[in-house]
Amino acid sequence: MRRLILPALLLSTSAAAQTAAGPGPDPVAAVDPMIGTGGEGHTFPGATAPFGMVQLSPDTDATCEIRKCYGHAAGYRYEDPTIQGFSHTHFSGAGHSDLGDILVMPQAGDAVKLDPGDPAQAGSGYRARFDHASETARPGYYAVRLMGTGAGSGIAAELTAGMRVGVHRYRFPAGQAAHLLLDLRTSLYDYPGKILWSGLHVRADGTLTGFRETRGWAAGRKLFFAMRFSAPLAGHALIDRDPSIPYKGFQGPGRGTDARAEKLGKALEARLDFGVLDAPLEVKVALSGVDENAALANLDAEPGTFDAIHARTEAAWRQALSAVEIDAPEPMRRNVYTALYHALLAPSVWGDADGRYRGPDDQVHQAQGFTFRSTFSLWDTFRAEHPLLTLVQPPQVTADVVNSLVASQQHSPDGILPVWQFAGRETWTMIGYHAVPVIADAYLKGMRGFDAEAALAAMVASADHAAYGGLGDYIARGYVPIDKEPEAASKTAEYAFDDWTIARMARAMGHRELAERFERRAGNWRNSFDTRTGWLRARLSSGAFRTPFDPTAINYGSDYTEGNAWQYSWFVPQDQAALFRVLGGDAKAIAKLDAMFDYDNAKLDYSHAEDIAGLIGQYIHGNEPSHHVAYLYTYAGAPWRTQERLAQIVQSQYKPSPDGLAGNDDLGQMSAWLVFTALGFYPVAPGSNEYVIGRPFVNRAVLNLPDGKRFAVVAEGLSDANRYVGSVMLNGAPLDRTFIRDGEIRAGGELRFTMQASPNRAWGTARSARPYSMSTASE
After folding, report:
1. Which pLDDT belongs to residue 63?
2. What's residue 8's pLDDT?
3. Glycosyl hydrolase family domain spans which residues (predicted)?
4. Residue 714 confidence (pLDDT)
5. What is the value of pTM for the model shown?
6. Residues 306 and 162 in one domain
């Protein structure tokens, strides 16, 4: 984390925060938002509140063509030398992008530049050079000094954010006129014709409101904003840079009669002039998905200056991060706390302060008793991100998630749960119906605050929606045929897991016949598993496996989703014991796991596949299908091998630096994996109410559970040399099994590991000691 050298006035909030932190290490100070901003992490360093609607962050390149934007999915890339401006919406760690809404850039002097210019040519536009030595990034706060010969040269910029507001603070060079440029043309991933329509409205009191409708990753997305300033406008200009034929669709809300100026168009900018200022300029911006008046109401709902909002947000982060107390060497402590921070950015709030939100049907709805949330990267986050939230956040957060998912299904024109949703809009990205395990896992853990019958109905409606992703054939045949649907092998396996979670919830609710139907479907993975070769493979409608077949081949739209047979042949979280029997027993399963990690990739080229990063042989930690695989040795009676592989993964895939994430964080999944793994256990099969024990990577950690109970993890003798688990104690009694139940954690207590330098080949090897598998659960 870099520190910005600024006058004492600008650093006053930092000093106050340290005073408020109280005794002991401050978890806020342990977080480094720069981790993941380089390499393939795709995180952003800017200011946001926990699950905040606003992610106010610098964009280093918001003009790249869509096919060249992968590295800029979060707007900011550590390697870039210039900042184009500060926009209000960003994804954290996505492999695809959109957003970058409402870009603001300060300028000083007489001339105001209207275009960003060439990043390779200093002073050619409003973008400005910067130096990482002048940056500060911490939860809820970002600062940088703009430099070079551009219009922003010499301006000190600070950003903070509340739940639905972002606040800028700019200190302009003495004696120079202050200006802001608001550019509604720019967007992350420059989809052709993305800006469908936009509007700007200067109200009588000087408040600027506006909107834009975009056609990008999510079609027809509407966003509204309201912007106020700490100094009066001395002048302004609303400019249409492309006065083409007016758009005939959405025109924006009625504005009333208080307009000083307004403009509608497809390429709008606002030049805002403030003259020479004798104090920093504060700019407060609120967002809404409903309309401009709702954005104004959100603005009023979070009163206060930059310092006041920053203090509230930093306190919120301190409370959220204090859910886990971590004692570890500084690099690991920084890694884990930053991972926890990243895991608390999404699913972000999308509902307004009054409870209204715009849903997937593009209509405005009123939430009753919950806050509507969106940004659901469910193919990624069902694995560990959502299970983590059930432990480190109040139950209302999970209830909000479930209620939002069910409301989305009820409002959806297609009648299914979200697949990959943001701003209330569906993108149809990735596969599966993975809202289902999120809901089931929450219910089975005792989470309430939602209509369980309505939730189950939404789950079944999604699983039976024949038009989605080959489900009609899956229901009829028991597998998805590759000649009718791409990525068929992956879809078959993932649908089967989702079906198992429906069965689990249905049985817990007393719906026996429904449970039996989906228990049968949970075994459909077998229909795509080639027992002769030992691989999960795609089958044709004829029943034959598709040929030619190469288990190392990765091609989008082929047999697998962002992976190959090496990763997907292990995806049976609901019944790993049955999979190992199909493979020929424990010894053969272990040998195949070893072959995966030890595979020589020297002759393979995956450069065409953007998301394939963090390779250890054919294990791909930078992408989610591999995330449970290291824990599978435990299901074969060799937990010490899991311990070895976890050490290999953690040491090679995470570090406290900008390139410290081996792959896209994917809205917190990579980070949640590290949090769980550092604690010593992981939810291999969400919905089982079990966590598979691995090995800890911290000396001591305490989960401060939402109901006030505390669950401690202690690692006696932990060191680089002592990487193996010698023994485990739960609440003072020996624990011989290799899993811990969710209820045991929630009851509070202590999980104590004794670490040693050599493997304990006796602990956890008995079949009765192994984690849940569907086929052996009743034995």
Report:
1. 67
2. 31
3. 295-756
4. 98
5. 0.95
6. yes
